[in-house]
């Protein structure tokens, strides 16, 4: 079965190609833009959001509301701490492996005026002001500061001055961001159907939608007039909303109405990756350059001597409410060795999980990874899922990448990435995805001596009933000491 595409069609007429001379060229409407960019970005790019709730992607429990989200620094302690990164808020790292998310500048419920007003608050690690984001030296700022919160309670009698104020605020936010050397991707307002699942009266709904379309057009025109290659407009019309401002089917759901789904974010992430590639180069395949501490097990050797064909040594497939058909094995696709399994008899609540080797605890063997307190580590892997009959992925599909670190004092740190909070109402429109999963940087506060063998990491695909079954693959598991 062929591999699913790395990046599904984005639908916004922005693409990038690799030229014969090794450079990438972004095209929009067939016109090449910014063509002299190195073809591969080998070092991580620092990514930040600045936004309302649409970019408030998650946080570490030990610094839950901090702007700085560059890594885990807290001790495991004696209780469970958890992080959940929502793929319906930010999916870029799934499609652009070099994306290193360092700042969460999203605060739910804020208008453009409130986003600007953050600067007036007392300095605090939780303030998330423009300057707080800039102080973390992002290479890319994803700007989602339209904001729908300026519009979602308006009535048809609202004054034009309200719309004009949103535009003026947005321009000021954008200009403040330009004080840094970052690439700014302005994504405007995604669309609007309802507030918390309740649609306004018909006349008010039409007014809100018309206002967001007008604002997006003004934002796009302003950026075009700037003619600044480091400020890019990502057009939501035709991608997330239609010409009236109504969300395209599957881009939000009936229980929400103003937040994009994970399906929407996968499309947005593809467009973001195209823009970033045109400036910084297409991403290398790894997030954490350096020596892979998993050694030869990362090559999925199944017996001494290097043969392939069964579940790799130190790994495990874990089906839930489904059956692995045939023998899970390894195959070579696209120059990578993939551990693969096929799940059939998929029932409600089904998932298929793959656990790579870990070996970070005292006494571990094959591999033996010596964790040193004060050192910083990263976990990453590639994964794909595809329906075996070629049908579209159902609406309830999502990936879950987890790193579970546990010590001998009942301390636990759970890193959970991918879990969405807004699901589409319709299928994904594609039969599969290939994604890259990477943890944030983890600075160990304990050594292997106190870590225990219940520590694990895995990639799980949630598999809704409907298709005849699913094929899942995992490649390139990496555990790297960063510094």
Characterise the protein shown here.
16% of the residues lie in helices and 29% in strands. It has 6 helices and 24 strands. It has helices spanning 92-95, 112-117, 130-134, 160-177, 202-226, 262-280, and strands at 14-18, 23-28, 31-38, 40-41, 45-51, 71-72, 80-85, 99-106, 140-144, 183-186, 231-233, 282-283, 316-320, 323-324, 329-333, 336-344, 351-355, 376-387, 398-406, 412-417, 432-438, 441-443, 456-462, 470-481. The strands form 5 sheets. Strands 6, 14, 15, 16, 18, 21, 22 and 24 form an 8-stranded mixed β-sheet that branches. Strands 7-20-19-23-17-13 form a 6-stranded mixed β-sheet, with no helix packed on it. α4 packs parallel to α5 (202-226). Residues 1-36 and 303-308 have low confidence and may be disordered.
Can you tag this structure with a few keywords?
483 residues, alpha/beta, Rossmann fold, Jelly Rolls, 6-stranded mixed beta sheet, 6 helices, 29% strand, globular
Give the helix/strand layout.
Elements: E1 14-18, E2 23-28, E3 31-38, E4 40-41, E5 45-51, E6 71-72, E7 80-85, H1 92-95, E8 99-106, H2 112-117, H3 130-134, E9 140-144, H4 160-177, E10 183-186, H5 202-226, E11 231-233, H6 262-280, E12 282-283, E13 316-320, E14 323-324, E15 329-333, E16 336-344, E17 351-355, E18 376-387, E19 398-406, E20 412-417, E21 432-438, E22 441-443, E23 456-462, E24 470-481
Parallel strand pairs: 4-12, 5-8, 5-9, 6-22, 7-20, 9-10, 10-11
Antiparallel strand pairs: 1-2, 2-3, 13-17, 14-16, 15-16, 16-24, 17-23, 18-21, 18-22, 18-24, 19-20, 19-23
């Amino acid at each position: 079965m062929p591999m699913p595409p790395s990046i599904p069609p984005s639908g916004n007429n922005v693409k990038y190609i690799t030229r014969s001379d090794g450079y990438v060229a972004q095209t929009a409407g067939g016109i090449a833009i910014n063509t002299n960019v190195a073809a591969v970005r080998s070092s991580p790019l620092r990514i930040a959001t600045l936004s309302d709730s649409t970019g408030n992607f998650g946080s570490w429990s030990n610094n839950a509301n901090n702007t700085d989200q560059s890594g885990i620094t807290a001790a495991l302690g004696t209780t469970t701490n958890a992080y959940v990164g929502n793929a319906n808020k930010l999916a870029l790292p799934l499609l652009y492996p070099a994306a290193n998310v360092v700042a969460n500048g999203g605060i739910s419920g804020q208008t453009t005026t409130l986003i600007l007003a953050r600067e007036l608050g007392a300095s605090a690690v939780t303030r998330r002001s423009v300057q707080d984001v800039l102080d973390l030296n992002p290479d890319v700022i994803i700007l989602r500061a339209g904001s729908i919160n300026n519009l979602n309670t308006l009535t048809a009698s609202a004054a034009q001055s309200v719309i004009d104020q949103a535009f003026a605020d947005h321009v000021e936010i954008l200009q403040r961001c330009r004080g840094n050397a970052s690439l700014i991707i302005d994504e405007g307002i995604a669309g609007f159907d309802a507030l918390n699942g309740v649609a306004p009266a018909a006349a008010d709904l039409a007014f809100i939608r018309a206002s967001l379309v007008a604002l997006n057009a003004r934002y796009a025109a302003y950026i075009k007039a700037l003619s600044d290659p480091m400020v890019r407009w990502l057009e939501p019309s035709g991608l997330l909303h239609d010409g009236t401002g109504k969300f395209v089917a599957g881009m939000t759901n009936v229980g929400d109405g103003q937040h994009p789904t994970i399906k929407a974010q996968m499309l947005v992430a593809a467009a973001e990756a195209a823009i970033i590639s045109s400036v910084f180069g297409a991403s290398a395949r790894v997030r954490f350059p350096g020596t892979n501490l998993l050694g030869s097990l990362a090559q999925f050797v199944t017996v001494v001597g290097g043969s392939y064909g069964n579940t790799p040594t130190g790994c495990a497939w874990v089906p839930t409410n489904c059956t692995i058909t045939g023998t899970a094995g390894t195959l070579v696709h696209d120059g990578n060795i993939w551990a693969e399994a096929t799940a059939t008899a998929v029932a409600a609540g089904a998932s298929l999980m793959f656990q790579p080797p870990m070996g970070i605890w005292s006494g571990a063997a094959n591999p033996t990874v010596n964790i040193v307190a004060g050192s910083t580590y990263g976990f990453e892997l590639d994964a794909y899922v595809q329906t075996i009959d070629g049908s579209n992925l159902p609406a309830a599909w999502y990936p879950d990448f987890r790193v579970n670190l546990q010590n001998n004092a009942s301390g636990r740190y759970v890193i959970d990435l991918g879990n969405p909070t807004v699901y589409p109402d319709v299928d994904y429109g594609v039969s599969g995805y290939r994604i890259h999963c990477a943890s944030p940087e983890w600075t160990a506060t304990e050594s292997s001596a106190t870590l225990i063998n219940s520590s694990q990491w895995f990639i799980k695909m949630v598999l809704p009933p409907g298709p005849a079954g699913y094929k899942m693959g995992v490649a390139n598991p990496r555990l790297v000491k960063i510094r």
